[in-house]
Amino acid sequence: MARILVVDDDLNLLQMVRLMLERVGHEVETTNKGAEGIARAAQMKPDLAIIDIMMPDLDGYNVVRRMRADPATASIPILVLTARSQEMDKQTAMRAGANAFLSKPVTAQQLTERVNSVLEMGVDYHVHTGLLTEPMDLENARQPIGAEPLSQQPDTHDNGTPLRNVLAVTSLRGGSGGTTLAVNLGMVLARQGQRVALVDLSATGGQIGLHLRLPTPQHWGALLGMEHLPDADHVLALLTVHTPSQVAVLGAPPAPTIERLSVYIVRGMLRTLSAHFDTTLVDISTLDEASAAALQMAAIVLLAVTDDLASVQTAQQTIGVLPSLGIERERIGIALSHVHPTPDIPLSAMQRALKRPLVAEIPYHAEQGAAIRRGVPLVVAEPGGPYEQALRKVQQALARVG
Amino acid sequence: MSGTLRQQVVSADFLTRTYRTSGDVSILGEPLLDQLNDELAHFLHVERVFISPLLDPATLTGNFRSAEVRKDRLGVVVLNRLEDGLPYRQGRYVGRDHVERQVLAIVAGFEVRGAIWLHPSVNVIELVRTTPERFIPIFNATATYAMQRDIVFSGGAILVNRGMIEVFAQVEG
């Protein structure tokens, strides 16, 4: 017998599901509102939550994401039960953090069988079948990770839940100061005694090594094409330590590559770093499946913007796209870097365009270009200066949000 | 308790060239296909409506308790179960002697591929050309959005607006 919470705005369906599950011995609680469902889940800690997608107050995708983001509910297995049953809907639900997916209409037998399977496997269970109502192949679902080729592996136990000590710094437009921000922020955190990992996820040659004048003979290129998740030692062996700061850098391949890390590998890599470092900063300069996976796992996404129209436009478009990747707007903060002595557009206009809070405003510094040429970050060349003070505000703001 | 959860309503995706509208239609009076083919009503009443832009079809951008969907603007209607796409007079599309015809319909920006089962005496091309009905069902079908081919809808039945068909062909072999 299990305690099951069912969340669906359709009162008739709630009643029928309750009867179906109680008939086989489960204890069932129901609610017809998504927000209330989250609260009830945190309170009752059910063995399973069955969530509808199409709910007017808070849709099921957001219910699932919020449950996964809250430690109180992150470990509750979630079965999505919905009339929206296309493959795209299933993928969205799984990316949000659902463990299984079932389409309406469903028979009592289908429902109870799926419920029993999810209960048996717990939060680690993922259904990975193309046909939503076909019988589950429990034998394959139980195979250990690594026993079959990566392309056929289920989406394992790592569903991309955000990690509290992972921060993504991103700018999809070159020259917007993303790498500078990530590098200098890493220096600031390391100086405070944190163990910091800095990941250069660029597939076009990477820049972090340049900013630190740090060759990275090992890099994440070694993980390309891997069929099995690398163990922690393998990932940690790819790090190069920046001796002056003790920041550990996971560099990018030195030459542009059309190959990309698989989502599976990115998630495993970040989980390893998250477990071994106080803070992991991920520098992201393009949008692809690998970087999307990294963005999804970041507790905070810091969008680097400069004070010119093109950068603001790119940032605006990025903010529009990220929610479709499962990154809620609430996780996105703006860091504005002034790269000109006088800004191209007023700050107020920028904030109106971006509609996201300004986490920090980093002042113009005439020596920024020289700092990169010398391989000495500004916060190292001028400790305690205006640049570092601005970054400390970033750190404080991130601590509040995280 | 036996049967499915819902027997008095059917859930469907109503696709135009720009939007995906998901909702429930009461079928107490008549099946959905017959409601769509009712020439006396220009609109279809849909409840529990959720809409998504077709280029981002999984993202829910709006919801309404009910809405009126204009039938002649619909491209295709996607249903999970084959039987939900049958008319009241099912004999036209299901029968012991019926044979399967694989068909392709390009309609409202979608490539719809699937099967129609008809009596051997019925020519599927002639049926599509001459039937007075606005919507015809294609079974066990997929609808691929031409503008973004990774957007694919599939269902036991896809009801196609005959008035928006651009190309219709029987697939040989």
Q: How many strand elements of chain B?
A: 10
Terminal-residue CA separation of chain A = 37 Å
CATH class of the largest domain in chain B: Mainly Beta
Gross morphology of chain A is elongated
CATH superfamily of the largest domain in chain A: P-loop containing nucleotide triphosphate hydrolases
The assigned structural class of chain B equals mainly beta
Q: Based on the coordinates given, report the CATH architecture of the largest domain in chain A.
A: 3-Layer(aba) Sandwich
Proportion of β residues of chain B? over 45%
Short structural description:
Chain A is α/β, with parallel strands linked by helices and 402 residues long. Chain A has helices at 11-23, 34-44, 60-69, 87-96, 108-121, 138-141, 178-191, 208-212, 232-236, 263-276, 289-297, 309-321, 347-354, 368-374, 378-381, 386-401, and strands spanning 3-7, 27-31, 48-51, 78-82, 100-103, 163-170, 196-200, 240-242, 247-250, 279-284, 298-306, 332-337, 358-362.
Give an overview in words.
- The complex is a heterodimer of chains A (402) and B (173).
- Chain A is 39% helix and 17% strand.
- In chain A, the strands form 2 sheets. Chain A has an 8-stranded mixed sheet, with helices on both faces. A 5-stranded parallel sheet of chain A has the order 2-1-3-4-5, with helices on both faces.
- Chain A folds into 2 domains: 150 residues, Response regulator (Rossmann fold, 3-Layer(aba) Sandwich), CATH 3.40.50.2300; 239 residues, P-loop containing nucleotide triphosphate hydrolases (Rossmann fold), CATH 3.40.50.300.
- Chain A contains 16 helices and 13 strands.
- The radius of gyration of chain A is 23 Å and the shape is elongated.
- Chain B folds into 2 domains: 71 residues, SH3 type barrels, CATH 2.30.30; 89 residues, SH3 type barrels.
- The termini of chain B are far apart.
- Chain B is built from 2 helices and 10 strands.
- Chain B is mainly beta.
- In chain B, strand 6 and strand 7 form a beta hairpin.
- At the A-B interface, helix 1 and helix 4 of A face strand 9 of B.
